[in-house]
Amino acid sequence: MSESLEVMSAGKMLLVEDDEVFAYVIIRAMRQRGYEVTHAANLGDARACVEQVALEDEIFGHAVLDLNLGGHSSLELIPVLKELNSHMQILMLTGYASIATAVDAIKLGATNYLAKPADADEILAALELDTEKLAEHYASIQEPMSVRRLEWEHIQKILKENDGNISETARQLKMHRRTLQRKLQKKPAAR
Predict the structure, then answer these.
(1) In the prediction, which pLDDT does 67 show?
(2) Which H helix or E strand runs over 159?
(3) d(CA 186, CA 165)
(4) Which residues contact 91 (CB under 8 A, 6 or more apart)?
(5) Which residues of 78-87 are buried (b: 16+ CB within 10 A; e: fewer)?
(6) Which of 37, 53, 65, 188 could form a cystine bridge with 74, CB 3.0-4.6 A?
(7) pLDDT, tens digit, for every residue of 100-131?
(8) How far is residue 154's CA from residue 168's CA, in Å, rounded to a whole number?
(9) What domains appear along the chain, each with residue ranges and CATH number?
């Protein structure tokens, strides 16, 4: 990839977010900061955006992906985006943060992982690896985890070890399958 193409793409951003209100706020804030933002509300739209950009021989310099898109995971977009531009800064943004998904996102090539709620400055800091701003953001959430949050993290770890098999995870946790499903449908405790 030529250096001039990288420079031209620095202001192009793909936002994959199914929460329309949050997406509107982020799009508006990023455009005010000089970014050209393309929004996709689901995986299908995101794939179409990526194909269109590839056909037009243009490139995104940044991508902000919501992890949970209507029951689907956007983790599968990371390798597709990295193939399009290996230097792309990719941020996984989620309201369902867990250590297991953070590790998966980073292994697949995401630049960073950020828990919602996050504002535009925090998103840009995470994309640009602004360690000072990120330290401020994480300092505000570095309290010890609550029992509910520890339970959530443990469930996510066991679920990942079982490749998403809820029945096997429930058996290993000595929990009824329906109870586990109810716990997985809830948002994790903030701390």
Answers:
(1) 86
(2) helix 147-161
(3) 18
(4) 62, 63, 64, 65, 110, 111, 112, 113, 114, 123, 126, 127
(5) beebbebbee
(6) 65
(7) 788 888 888 988 888 877 888 888 888 876 55
(8) 14
(9) 3-139 (3.40.50.2300), 147-185 (1.10.10.60)
